[in-house]
Amino acid sequence: METVFSKIIEGSIPSTKVFENERILAFYDIEPAAPVHVLIIPKKFIASMNDVTPEDLPLIGEIHAVAQQIAVELGIADTGYRLINNCGPDSGQAVPHLHYHLLGGAKLGALVGNSASHA
Q1: Residue ranges of domains in the chain
Q2: Cys staple from 27: which of 15, 58, 62, 89, with CB 3.0 to 4.6 Å?
């Protein structure tokens, strides 16, 4: 399926890359929701988290490791960050290609269940 992310992966849409290897691409979001807002995507097309197979689990783990690495490199690991995956239209997933938002660089607002009583 062709999406804005597949065009970014192939290079027909420019992006400001933060990380890239054979399997993963990370780049700055063009409409940032925080001072640091990086999108991390697999180069393999996976529509959403609902489409992840057992064979994809090493890739998902690698994405999380890349998120940690980027957080360190961008100086947000010590103060905190969010790694968000939206799955499906009700969650706000706008692009049907699995992706994670790495957000940080400021004190972020509370989310549902984001309190000591829910920890």
Answers
A1: 4-107
A2: 15
SS3 (DSSP) at 11: coil
Return d(Cα 92, Cα 115) in angstroms, integer: 23
Three-state secondary structure readout of 17-83: EEEECCCEEEEECCCCCCCEEEEEEECCCCCCHHHCCHHHHHHHHHHHHHHHHHHHHCCCCCCCEEE
What are the tens digits of pLDDT across the range 11-67?
999 999 999 999 999 999 999 999 999 999 999 999 999 999 999 999 999 999 999
Q: Quickly tell me which residue has 């968000």 as its tokens.
A: 84
- Please tell me the CATH code under which domain 4-107 is placed: 3.30.428.10
72 half-sphere exposure, CB direction, 13 A CA radius: 5
Residue positions annotated with a catalytic role:
99
Residues, the chain? 119
